[in-house]
Amino acid sequence: MTINAPARYDLCIVGGGVNGCGIARDAAGRGLRLLLCEKDDLAQATSSASTKLFHGGLRYLEQYEFRLVREALKEREVLLSAMPHISWPMRFVLPHHQGLRPAWLLRLGLFIYDNLGGRKILPGTKTLDLGSDAVGAPLKDSFRKGFEYSDCWVEDSRLVVLNARDAADRGAEILTRTAFVSAEPDGDGWQVDLQDTETGGQRRINAKVLVNAAGPWVEEIARNRARLNTTEKIRLVRGSHIVVKKLFDHDRAYIFQHADGRVIFAIPYEQDFTLIGTTDADHEDLDKVECTQEEAMYLCDLASEYFEVPVQQTDIVHTYAGVRPLYDDGSMSATKATRDYVLKLERQGTAPILNVFGGKITTYRKLAEEAMEQMAPALPGLKPAWTAGKPLPGGDFAVDGVAALEDEVAALAPWLDARTKARLVRAYGTDAKRMLGQTKSPEDLGRDFGHGLTEVEVRWLMDREWARTTDDILWRRSKLGLRLTREEVDDLDQWMNSTRGDADRPEVA
């Protein structure tokens, strides 16, 4: 196999999760030439397995992580304004009981939570009578009082893809299914070898700075592939979730605390389901990341301590798990390990490498800004920070403008059913109009693979969002995997393979 003559970049970013794509977007907007490589699909690992919240982390106040909570709380509204299609405000209900701290102390903690980050858009905390409020109906009668506060929902994997899209629109080269093989110092920079995981083709590039944002693989990349003699370590902590049949009819979420101090959420999910999670368990084998039987049972049991109707394992329709690459701060338990991010700029000789440890999805943009600050000495003439308030693709409309945008889409494509129209607006924002712009009738959408997923949408995802497989589309670009039958998935797979084959096949003279 032939290795091409090296192309030169300012940055080579390893890892297509939220941190890698966030750094790529920030760097591309500052005029840097960069390449991002991801061995699988974008957001395939940790970044699509979160609880899908922009939140400050209420429980982190108990661990005195005030800087982390404050930064995350401030970021909620910055992010919400930049992506009103994939993120929206959500109210959380904390039922009070004797096993918790006194009600006055919880209310004080929520007052701090309300005000620590300079809240402007989101409503503040209020006290609830669970005996009269509809949110108390699904709960056991023993819960009489509760507190309701604000955080935000986010479609985590779409967040990653849209950051990659914006980076690409600004000149970044985004390579999925491309493994980082190795790197060697080359003067003041790096010589990097990459490999296409589908074809086996190899490529060599040069980069001034190597950014190791490989998530759970960050330590392995640093030690074994960049051969860096680093002392930094990560702690792998697995978080598992279950998706069950819809447990309640309102649009508010719950936060439940167990006697062991852990908290879980029960969140309205994809209209017909409830998402319950997460767990905290130390993890070792990155080739096997799944919600265990014990974790699923734990989540069912804890939720059943609160809900009047017990949550049974037979209610589970889907499970998922992700591994958080937390910075190893020596904590005794996985629950108490810091969720803050740590950036370490090190050198192999004179070649700089930035290793990214930990982080929360809520602070990915701030992490990217700090990463650029640390790399600035190696990147002369770096332009200033710019991402605050700048919308992601499709997010160029008002925070409260979803209903109006749905009306515009309905006028453009009146044949769409209400559920598909709402899904397209929430997934693509104003890009939904661009996607549908050339269609004049339902027939122009092409084949419907089920639940409103049509050829037009699939082509958009393959052409603009790096989708290669049905899993890319059904579990990361959407959550339609919860709905399509096995036959419908097979039909989509065959169509994608034939379409990709046509696109890849060279023209015959």
Care to describe what's here?
The chain contains 13 helices and 18 strands. With 509 residues, it is of the alpha+beta class. The strands form two sheets. Strands 3, 4, 5, 6, 11, 12, 13, 14, 15 and 16 form a ten-stranded mixed beta sheet that branches. Strands 1, 2, 7, 8, 9, 10, 17 and 18 form an eight-stranded mixed beta sheet that branches. It is globular.
Quick tags:
10-stranded mixed beta sheet; 509 residues; 30% helix; 13 helices; disordered C terminus; 8-stranded mixed beta sheet; 18 strands; alpha+beta
**Largest sheet composition:** 10 strands, mixed
Class computed from helices, strands and strand pairing: alpha+beta
Mean pLDDT: 92
What characteristic shape results from the CA principal axes?
A: globular
Oligomer: single chain
Strand content: 15-25%
Brief characterization of the structure:
With 509 residues, the chain is α+β, with helices and mostly antiparallel strands. 30% of the residues lie in helices and 25% in strands. It has helices at 18-29, 66-82, 103-115, 156-169, 218-225, 293-304, 364-375, 402-412, 418-428, 431-436, 455-464, 470-477, 486-504, and strands at 7-14, 34-37, 53-54, 87-95, 126-129, 145-154, 173-175, 178-186, 189-196, 202-212, 234-245, 253-257, 263-269, 273-277, 281-282, 316-327, 341-348, 351-358.
